[in-house]
Amino acid sequence: MNFFWDLFLGGLTRGSIYALLALGYTMVYGILQLINFAHGEIYMIGAFSALIVASILTMQGLTGLSVLILATIATVLYAAAYGFTVEKIAYKPLRQSSRLSPLISAIGMSIFLQNYVMLAQTSDFLPFPNLLPQSNFLDSISSVIGPSDFIIIVTSAAVMSALTLLLKFTKMGKAMRATAQDQTMAMLTGVNVNRVISRTFIIGSALAAIGGILIASHVGRINFYIGFNAGIKAFTAAVLGGIGSVPGAVLGGLVLGLAESFGTGYISSDYESVFAFALLILILIFKPDGILGRSSQQKV
Amino acid sequence: MGNILEVKNLTMDFGGLRALNNVNLHIQRGEIAALIGPNGAGKTTLFNCLTGIYKPTAGDILLYPPDGKAKKISGLKINIITELGVARTFQNIRLFGGMTVLENVMIGRHTRSKSSILGAIFRPPATRSEEKAIIDKSYSILEYMGLAPLVNELANNLPYGAQRRLEIARALATDPHLLLLDEPAAGMNPQETNELDALIAQLRTDYNLSILLIEHDMKLVMNLAQNIFVLDYGEEIAYGTPQEIRHNPAVIKAYLGEEADAEVS
Amino acid sequence: MKYACELKQSTYIALWFILLTFPIMVVKVNTIENIIVWRWINIVGVGVGAFVLSFFWQLYLRKKMTSQQTAPEKVSILNRLIENPKIYRPALFIVGIFALIFPAVFSHYQVNVMTTALIYVMLGLGLNIEVGLAGLLDLGYVAFYAVGAYSYALLNYHFGLGFWMLLPVGALLAAFFGILVGFPVLRLRGDYLAIVTLAFAEILRLVLENWNTFSFGPSGISNIPRPGFFGINLTPEQSAIYMYFLLIALCGLTIFVTYRLQHSRIGRAWVALREDELACQATGIDKTKAKLTAFALGAMWAGMAGVLFAAKTTFINPASFTFMESAMILSIVVLGGMGSIPGIILAALAITLLPEYLRVFSDYRMILFGAALIIIMVFRPGGLLADRRKQYKFHQPDAKEKR
What is the DSSP string of chain A? Predict the structure, then answer.
């Protein structure tokens, strides 16, 4: 039972991170029908910025919660700026092109960002300080749930609820949903589509950065390549839930996290990624609309 | 003469939406028939069922090729239906934009030729002569359609009217018995429409075709068609000669609404 | 001033990039000794670089926008050069002579480098069938390469079969694997197909890495024999020269076959499939067959290249078959020009040889590929040497002859 509970929690933690990342994929896909291949790299850059900012702050003598808060704010801002810039460079000039051009450009951006961080920083793994706060409350529940697991699950849930509210009730959220439905129609009713797209990238990147900080604190080390695998898995989660659907991305992330956790726990840990990739192939082939996705009929 | 195509009780659902309801239709060998109806009546959906793009929910589509016996084509793959002799054009032109005009038509010859991978690599005399035949035939079709001066242009670079004609040329290259034209006159000016009118009539005799066309230009339809089918909300509401359709109260109602008493012109 | 607007914009953009790259470019944390290295000089580099790049970026983007409205098609100088018989015939002759005397003039090392470059020519031309002609964006092409390499290594290890026997076997197995991957992805849209092929390749690599009893895991397989030469034992130097000529011959074969395929009924069907899948079917082409032949015939060359790679290096392990390898082969195709055989040959040679001879390129190789993919897509989607459709000539009096 205990083993089961551990696996369950591990899966939930992992799944929350996938969900945070999957939201970025699903929102961009909903609006642009583009697989933002560089999204995983934003998450990686988020983790690196967090490490750098946190180290600077620590050496200035700051400790504890203030480091966490300042580093998180800085990281979210930086990652959002990266997401914004990536869209302007690699995708915006290709709005009118065929479907594959922006995807190739996205792959180029992904390779570029990975190597940029590798060259400017290092190709080795860097230890990542645990930024997550300590408290008596967390210690008291640590026999049931690990502190970082708890924080990751709670933070992700809070962030995702905030996003849902934002999409549902704000004017910006309405404009985003309208653009996802029908870009031309949205434009005709006065929505500034370019701005909506920029904001989508900014929000998606901010979520990815939060995911980056959380996972880096949890795992304790980062390198320039962590974005690639996480990116593909988060994309799998998005497709699993139904790409374009926000609740779908969350559900897909959790399902994938749990499946991986139980798969590695009860079957074999060597093939952890194989499970995710195999799942991705099976969904795309047999149920490309995912669990919560709308089915789409090709127009002729 | 007999029919070349019969559609029996065709129904097409999309999810809960019924796009075509129990449609019956028949096209006589050698005639030009027209399919008209308000926007969203299901005309293009019917074309898509006829050409295999959609699998109909219920009903049969039967093709009677001149040299064989009836063949049920509903549910067959798109390319097989083309091979059996049904060719079409698209409402929003779908050419192979990055290929030349000639190549577009050469693609049409694909189903009528058969050189294999090994033939492509070793190019034996059979492949060479087949290739030459493809080029010659394609060129003669382009010449017929008045596109000969443009053979080496990219399809994307053609003016609109020429693109429409190229699409017809490509369809002709598949040696069809039945040609389906989806709004061939859309976006054309009156002069181009007149030319098209003459061209379609000529096509039927020169290529020994039966033609079914969807068109909103009533003058063209009334001029060309021997028989007209009218669809509204997925149902067939009228069938008859242009004279009959012109005075059919159901058609007038469908086009102009309840209180209208004007004629469809 | 003519460029005032661009210069002003570029200044802002340079400032933006200085801010954006500040933590990553300037700060370097040494987590072991707990010190921070500040590399202020990098600010200057980023600022100047961003300014210059953004200036030209905007200039070209504007030029592209205006030229799209006025002149739709312009043939590049490079294209015009290689299409002129007066130029390409002597050039081909010189290249041929150079290829023949290359091993006699250059060192053993250079010959090896050139052999590797030729393997990439073969890979690029193979992937071109899938991506360039049929428009199937295969992000897992390296899987077929791995199938070829491992089939040579394993079949040789277990059954002692020789190179010449296994060269076609590796090619056929890869083609078969191509069909195996091709079947499930038939119905998928372009971008989903890309992801599924990527997933297939990653699964294959992970299996090779973890299934020790089958593939010897991450440590790989060593002592793979070089190809024999009529039973004579060759020294490593002779063997390298032998491999080189083998690759020259097989690349010649690849070029010949892919050229013939491209300009055949099947090649046209592939291009039609790329241009418009639905119209292609409605014009009578069997989509399933066209896609599967593209996958099989594309994979075949990767399989052959894999056998040659294993025979050349005499050692293989899963690390040679990562996604980055697929990305590199894709860069060759995109950079050279999708569908353009001469373009891809040039790009393959450039991408593999430049890093060898210019150290700058070797450190910055992958970052340059990444940048190149974006720049090509934005400014020159046809690649450096874009494919041009074949122009047919007619001798009927009313046919307007082009050139």
Answer: -HHHHHHHHHHHHHHHHHHHHHHHHHHHHHHH----TTHHHHHHHHHHHHHHHHHHHHHTT--HHHHHHHHHHHHHHHHHHHHHHHIIIIIGGGTTS-THHHHHHHHHHHHHHHHHHHHHS-SS-EE----SPP-HHHHHTTTTS-HHHHHHHHHHHHHHHHHHHHHHHSHHHHHHHHHHH-HHHHHHTT--HHHHHHHHHHHHHHHHHHHHHHHHHHH-EE-TTHHHHHHHHHHHHHHHH-TT-HHHHHHHHHHHHHHHHHHHHHT-STTHHHHHHHHHHHHHHH-TTTTTPPP-PPP-
